[in-house]
Amino acid sequence: MPHRILGVIPARYASSRFPGKALAAFAGKTIIQHVYERSSRCPLLDELIIATDDQRIREAAERFGAAVRLTRSDHPSGTDRVAEVAASSEAEIIVNIQGDEPLIEPAAIEAAARALLESSPAPMATLKKRIVNLQEFTNPNVVKVVTDHSGHALYFSRSPVPYDLTGEAVHYKHIGLYVYRREFLLQYSKLRVGPLERAERLEQLRALENGYRIRVIETEYESLGVDTPDDLRRVEKIYRESQSG
């Protein structure tokens, strides 16, 4: 019997750097509509839901025909919001799709989801992309990831890893799209927060510190999140260039 796969897009109105960004628009559509419509093209998703605690986002989503769930307002993270939706679903695999990436590639979602359809024993999966720009390697806002021979994460860090003086090592940045097995997602927020997660301020380290494996799939997808109005203008420029060929 095939696995049921649920995609969830957590979206909140509050944002310290860009309040209401989910409803900011370019090319005639809001960011959340772009994310929903592009994600819906992923052939593996059996269902796609926008999860929000804001009535304005809910009404906007319903206007363009999205399935939307109004969630609690006290969730500390998007992962917890996704888990609330997953708790009432029978889907076995849950994809957490960032609500601020209007140029999300359906193929990236599919690649991450397929990782848990394989024989990997990992309870969660994510993506990595090869770093070709030295500035990204040294930028603490670009999270780096190192993996073992079977493609499971060894560590995530804001520091340049692995250390390399020969130029032979290949470096990867983490792309923050997560896929979970349902049972693991429902207990994730209850796992103990360790010193590595606190030091790096990276939630995914909670899984590693508690002994769980994370399958990491390489992708060519370039994550373009919108955190500021300047980011929105940059994404709009890329979008228009892609539309003009």
Model description:
The protein is an alpha/beta fold and 245 residues long. It has nine helices and eleven strands. The strands form two sheets. Strands 1, 4, 5, 6, 7, 8, 9, 10 and 11 form a nine-stranded mixed beta sheet that branches. The protein has a two-stranded antiparallel sheet with strand order 2-3. The chain is globular and about 55 Å long. The N and C termini lie far apart (42 Å). The relative contact order is 0.18. The mean pLDDT is 94.
Taking Cα atoms only, what radius of gyration do you get, to the nearest Å?
18 Å
Structural class of the secondary structure composition? alpha/beta
Quantity of strands, as a count:
11
Series of secondary-structure elements, N-terminal to C-terminal: EEEHEHEHEHEHEEEHHHEH
Task: Catalogue the unreliable spans.
Answer: none
Largest sheet: 9 strands, mixed
Q: Beta-sheet strand percentage?
A: 15-25%
Overall geometric form = globular
Q: Which key features would you list for this structure?
A:
245 residues, 31% helix, alpha/beta, globular, two-stranded antiparallel ribbon, nine-stranded mixed β-sheet, 22% strand
Fold topology:
Layout lengths: L4 E7 L13 E2 L2 E2 H9 L7 E6 L2 H9 L4 E3 L7 H10 L5 E4 L9 H10 L8 E7 L3 H5 L5 E4 L5 E5 L14 E10 H7 L6 H6 L4 H5 L4 E5 L10 H15 L2
Parallel strand pairs: 1-4, 1-6, 4-5, 7-11
Antiparallel strand pairs: 2-3, 6-10, 7-10, 8-9, 8-10
Helix pairs in contact: 3-6
